Amino acid sequence: VELLRRVRADNAAQTGSISGAEIDERLQRAMLITVNGVAAGLRNTG
């Protein structure tokens, strides 16, 4: 939930700066890792 909140806040406040782009990239990667982890867990539980 916290990552989703950060992604939404980042999208709302896009500054266009280089540091903003780095944060966006890190948040996107964290979201993908989280979703992949949940999917793997569901696959293992049947």
Description of the structure:
This protein is 85% helix and 0% strand. Helix 1 (2-12) packs antiparallel against helix 2 (18-45). The chain is elongated, with a radius of gyration of 13 Å. The protein has helices spanning 2-12, 18-45. The model has no long low-confidence stretch (mean pLDDT 79). The two termini are 24 Å apart. With 46 residues, it is mostly helical. The chain has a domain at 1-7 and 24-46.
Task: Describe the protein's topology.
Blueprint: H1 2-12, H2 18-45
Helix pairs in contact: 1-2
Helical amount among residues, as a percent range?
over 70%
- How would the global form be characterised? elongated
Low-confidence stretches: none
How far apart lie the N and C ends? 24 Å
Rg calc? 13 Å
Short description:
With 46 residues, the chain is an all-alpha fold.
List keywords for this structure.
single chain; 46 residues; mainly alpha; 85% helix
